[in-house]
Specification:
The complex is a heterodimer of chains A (250) and B (218). Chain A is mostly helical. Chain A contains twelve helices and no strands. Chain B starts with a helix and ends with a helix. The chains are: A mainly alpha (250), B mainly alpha (218). Chains A and B meet through helix 2, helix 3, helix 6, helix 8 and helix 9 of A and helix 3, helix 4, helix 5, helix 7 and helix 8 of B. Chain B: It is a multi-pass membrane protein.
Chain lengths: 250, 218
């Protein structure tokens, strides 16, 4: 082993070398994006339905609790052995199981946190049920929903490292190979890249949230003028407690 | 189903050892984390300008993946990569990040009229904190402890990727042997452990905050 830290060695960043950091990073992001997308498509409509109708709330709340206590590594091992497959499907299922609870509970909780007076007013103005949902409830719930999506993305970014454990690519390769080769420098490199990726993605999503949420909800602009306390601030607090798992990987 | 029972019969002591390790690896950092978070959360309320920095640092600590922390800590602490100390320190860190904010929010949620009443009755700052504010903040704080406990129990399993014991070792063993029994045992025990810890904290909360029940019953 040479003395250059793994991360600073240009060879490990070359696009032409297969298995170099950019390749692993790209694979990692692909796994993450696919899992979040599939999880979102399942959880978001379900959360809207439960939050809007108020029916099935029991399921939404318990999904959050169950999701937090289910060990992803165990689920993944079980899926791989059970399906006798080393492919991406077991990893995708395990990651989707991780994504669904935070998005489902935050969508539900977000809709529930909307001021009932606003909903009544919208109904009184003659809005249909769908109009109430998409024009009033969802925009007002958006900060809380975003909290759930951010938590889900963080968890998946952290947990996608287990793909390497079952022989796939992604940043987990640096950790798993480093451990196997007794190359601690490689493991530290993997840890640093995953950590930086998680923090950067969270910041980016925070930025998206800033511009996606209506200024009428966040109180941006208003706050400076009148010192109004924003809905986003008070909403985000409860949602974070509900949906976040520290450190992602579970 | 039979294979699970057979596995349990033949590996009773291994499974019990793993369960014991898991409990220790989850509970020690929980206790340490809560004890460290209490004064930090208090400082966040006492000195208001500290509240947002605490929130921001917690958020960043939160977003660092646990496996990355497990790997990086030996470098920082000078421990061996296989040392359970890494897991304990990492989970204590997450617990502090979660709880510092919760403690601050809990103390902030106490009705100022009540603290003023306590002051008027001659309670000094420390006594007021310990006998009035902290008990009234207990429901919020303990809600945070429930989240921390459950996620700690779940995060311990990740240590198995590095070869550290606990129920996660059953996952890696089952995976290597291509055998579902140990994996199922590990998953069931880990969920049961989380449920038991959650229940225990709820019971504790009911015991230390009898007034919340009286209000709900009325």
């Amino acid at each position: 082993m040479d003395d250059t830290p793994y991360l600073l060695d240009g060879a490990h960043w070359a696009w032409s070398t297969s298995g170099s950091i950019p390749h692993l990073l790209l694979a990692h992001l692909q796994y993450t994006a696919l899992a979040v997308l599939v999880g979102f498509v399942i959880a978001f409509p379900l959360g809207l339905l439960i939050g809007h109708t108020g029916r099935g709330a029991f399921w939404a709340i318990n999904a959050g609790n169950a999701g937090r206590s289910l060990p992803t590594l165990g689920l993944l091992s079980l899926l791989v052995v059970y399906m006798s497959s080393q492919g991406f499907l077991p990893v995708l299922i395990a990651l989707v199981v991780l994504v669904v609870p935070p998005i489902l509970t935050s969508t539900y909780a977000g809709l529930r946190s909307v001021d009932p007076n606003a909903v009544d007013a919208a109904r009184g103005m003659g809005m249909s049920s769908a109009q109430v949902l998409f024009r009033v409830e969802l925009p007002m719930a958006l900060p809380v929903v975003f909290g759930g999506v951010r938590a889900a993305v963080l968890q998946v970014v952290a947990t996608a490292t287990v793909a390497a454990y079952v022989g796939l690519s992604g940043l987990g390769r640096l950790l798993v190979d480093g451990l196997a080769l007794n190359d601690y420098g490689r493991m530290v490199a993997g840890a640093v890249v995953v950590a930086v990726l998680a923090v950067v993605l969270d910041l980016l999503l925070g930025l998206v949230q800033r511009y996606a949420v209506s200024p009428g909800i966040t109180g941006r602009g208003l706050r400076r003028a009148r010192g109004t306390r924003s809905v986003a601030e008070s909403g985000a607090q409860s949602s974070e407690l509900m949906s976040a798992t520290p450190g992602g990987t579970s | 189903m039979n294979s699970v029972l057979d596995y349990l019969r033949q590996n009773q002591s291994t499974v019990l050892d793993a369960l014991g390790q898991h409990v220790v690896l989850a509970v020690v950092p929980l206790l340490v984390g809560v004890l460290v978070a209490l004064p930090i959360g208090y400082l966040g309320v006492r000195f208001g300008w500290l509240y947002h920095p605490i929130l921001n640092v917690s958020g960043i600590v939160y977003s660092i993946p646990s496996l990355a922390v497990f790997v990086a800590l030996p470098y920082v602490l000078g421990t061996k990569i296989l040392s359970p100390v890494n897991i304990v320190v990492a989970l204590a860190m997450y617990t502090v990040a979660l709880m510092a904010r919760t403690v601050a929010d809990g103390l902030r949620s106490v009705d100022p009229a009540l603290t003023e009443a306590a002051t008027a009755m001659g309670y000094k700052r420390t006594r007021r904190l310990l006998e009035v504010e902290l008990p009234l903040a207990a429901p919020v704080i303990l809600a945070g402890v429930r989240v921390a406990a459950v996620s700690n129990i779940s995060l311990v399993s990740v240590g198995a990727l590095l070869g550290i014991g606990g129920l996660g070792a059953l996952f890696t063993r089952g995976f290597q042997l291509f055998y579902t029994a140990p994996i199922i045992v590990g998953i069931v025990l880990s969920i049961a452990l989380a449920a038991a810890a959650d229940l225990l904290i709820v019971v504790f909360q009911r015991a230390v905050t009898p007034w919340t029940r009286a209000v709900m019953g009325a």
